[in-house]
Amino acid sequence: MTSMFPRSTFQLLALCLTLFSSSVWFFSSRTGGANGHSASYLHYGRAPPTPPADVNVNVDVTESAHDPIWDIQNRTLGFQKIYAISMPHRTDKRDFLALMALVSDLEIEFFDGVNGSEIHPTALPSFWSGEDGPGTIGCWRAHVDLYQKMVRERIQSALVLEDDADWDILIKAQMTEVARGTRYIQNATLPLHSPYGDNWDLLTVGHTGANNKPNKDQHYWLSKNDPTVIHPTRRTWGRTPDFSAPSLEGDYNRIIHEASKLTGTAGYAISLRGAARILYDQTMGQNARSIDTAMANICRRDPFGSPFCLSSYPMLFGRYRPAGPQDKDSDRRLSTNEAGGAVPQSKDIRTEAVSEFTVFPASLNVQRLLMSESVIPANDPDTDLLKEIDVSKAVLPRGKGVFVREGEYVEFNKILADRKKEEEAAQKSGGVKRDESVEIDARTEGQEKVDIEHRALRFRRMR
Q1: Is residue 19 part of a domain?
Q2: What is the mean pLDDT of residues 65-91?
Q3: Coil/strand/helix, residue 254
């Protein structure tokens, strides 16, 4: 009689392999195991629906596979962390950011804001040069707490967002181009640890105005006719750079440059080195002031030797304003937590949500992206370069390096020439000899005058 059991070790091994293979096939066919999907989808081999974060966005990356620029396609845009500073009780704002992060395939960690009125008096800065009021102090402390965390935990880089930040659905493509620009300005070459180069402190990509440095020869990164750039008529902020050099002119250009000053902190990236330097400046350096003013002061002085601030102009990160009472917009400006001299927020009701300073905002397109739609309308089709964009097909233009000499800035040099004429006329009429020891740097003052003239000219055009 023939035995039904295997007669040798070889036959036993073959039987075990057969049973194991059958088991793997049986269970994987019911869980979609080959695709890595959850076992909760029991539809016999069919993959579950595509999650909304898988909406395909074209990003033009042709660099070497060993280049860290590819890391920008991860969920933290090539930084070690993305943090959103938010008061713990503002769960409404955290809801918005969670949804916007999902449809953009980003991973955002919330970092608790600080109520300035609860800071112990002995912990307040001994030398404070900023606005008074618990709102401003609390905002400053929250950012400084984050720098302290980066220093303690050796976090190499972070993108820091305020909880009303908004961004373009093409943010990964935009930041890829920013990285090319920051590398060009740093003259960075492989190998690199960061996709943005290894010699930067602060990347201000969510300001509400920034100045460049027209008082020196320098490099820029220029992307012409970028459909994610807002038209000049939508740039309602006061601080503007001098891009009057012929090679920089254009309404839809995005320019990466060294920044001398900035306003606003809706979004910025900071390296560990930059976090340590600001932490020192704001605590042991006795220069404490509202956080964006502190950053602008360091950008202007460059006290650590290398250019501290690199910027994208216009900005990449704007602001989301939901429908509802407008006095919910800012926790810093609430009537019970308002800095001295601040303009009170309006108590009017906003009937529709708006996104400021963006073209294809994540906030206003959450529903479309949750439905896996790829055609996204422009925020302001009357002025934006394109009325809509298909994110599965569109590719942003590739930028190029531009070198500009000091003498090429038309407006800046006109102001310097006018100033020189005024001084010569004053000397002839009064016989006054210029005192070099107390003279204000003409270039610095000239840059401020350019900024004021830009502002006046823009408002005249808007009328």
Answers
A1: no
A2: 97
A3: strand
- The two three-digit tokens of residue 228, written as one number: 């994610």
Contact call for residues 205 and 267 (beta carbons, < 8 A): yes
Q: Is the overall model pTM greater than 0.85, yes or no?
A: no
Alpha-helical segments (H) within 85-170: 91-104, 134-153
Q: Are strands 254-258 and 324-325 parallel, antiparallel or unpaired?
A: unpaired
Q: How many domains does the chain have?
A: 3
Q: Is the dihedral of CA 303, 304, 305, 309 positive or negative?
A: negative
Query: Which DSSP helix (H) or strand (E) runs through 202?
Result: strand 202-206
Beta-strand relationship, 317-321 and 261-262:
unpaired
Domain residues for the domain of 37 are 24-52
- 186 and 69: one domain? yes
Q: Cα separation of 96 and 207, whole Å?
A: 20
CB 220 within 8 A of CB 401: yes
Kindly report, residue by residue over 26-73, the tens digit of the pLDDT: 444 434 433 333 333 333 345 555 555 555 578 999 999 999 999 999
Q: How many CA atoms lie within 13 A of 332 on its CB side?
A: 24
Specify if 221 maps to a domain.
yes
